[in-house]
Amino acid sequence: MTVTQADVAARAGVARKTVSNVINNYPHVSDDVRARVLAAIEELDYRPNHAARSLRSGHSRIIGLAVPELDVAYFSELARLVVEVAQKRGLTVMIMQTLGDRDRELAVVNGTSTQFVEGLIYSPVALGGADLEGRRDRTPIVLLGERSSQGLVDHVGIDNVAAARTATEHLIEIGRRRIAFIGSQRAATSEIAQLRTAGYRQALEAAGLKVESRLIVPTAGYHRKDGMLATRKLLQRTGPLPDALFCATDLLAQGAIRALLEHGLRVPEDVAVVGFDDIDEGRYSTPTLTTISPDKRQIAETAVDRLLARAQSKTDLPVNDTVTGSTLVVRESTVGRASSG
């Protein structure tokens, strides 16, 4: 049975209008009354159904964007584009950071921290299909990135396997044969690692090159420090040094280049490096960074438009899985200054 504001009011011993005032965060409600209402909301598991009502009526026009880390350039650049696209469509964006924490991600999915948004664009790290299937909140969701939606909600993302294969094939085409992969993760939740490792393996196998386990290096995360530490570890292993690195993110690649330089190796003369994400600073680093560039604008536009379509529809729309484009951007870290253009 659906819980209403009247039920919350009865449990808290207040008027229904007071419940509405608390939900809308009006300042003139006393701390004691606010605490009682919030306790009743939690006890009754009340979830305000803002989504269809507000977007259809145009009253709120607020959508949520939840990403793991705002200090990761890929997500901050994507957030800027989502805000830009949303504003052109008359929407305001509330941005949330989950830090990849499972409890925070569950709170977002179940509406605990998104009660006032009319739809959600979401890039989770730790959640799986079962979490989406069991969610209590009915707010429209568009999932971004590598996490599979398992046909439960709309999804927008690139073909990570194909993109990783393209990156590795580029290294093979410029004559590199001992190609390492930086960014593999043992955790089952890391689909980004699984998919990009798969593309790397496919490219090597198609070229008749051996996939060497010593050249596949896991990382604790996807930041510069993780790339630097993983590359230091790689360079200490027995056997011939790699002549190329494919890194799962641009930040890993930047850290890897630092470790290579510390080791007295030149990029790209001794070791060529490819990243993934095409963050803006890669265009200005020394050397500039060859990378896979996801079409972030297409991702933002597709996600916002799909969210609007679902929220405004009077009937249930079929779940949509959209594959957006990506391209290889060749720069100095693989071909040198003279050839990079």
UniProtKB/TrEMBL annotation:
Lineage top rank: taxon: Bacteria
Matches recorded under Pfam families: LacI, Peripla_BP_3
Alphabetically ordered keywords of this record: DNA-binding, Transcription, Transcription regulation
Transcription in keyword set: yes
HTH lacI-type domain ranges (all copies): 3-57
Protein name as annotated: LacI family transcriptional regulator
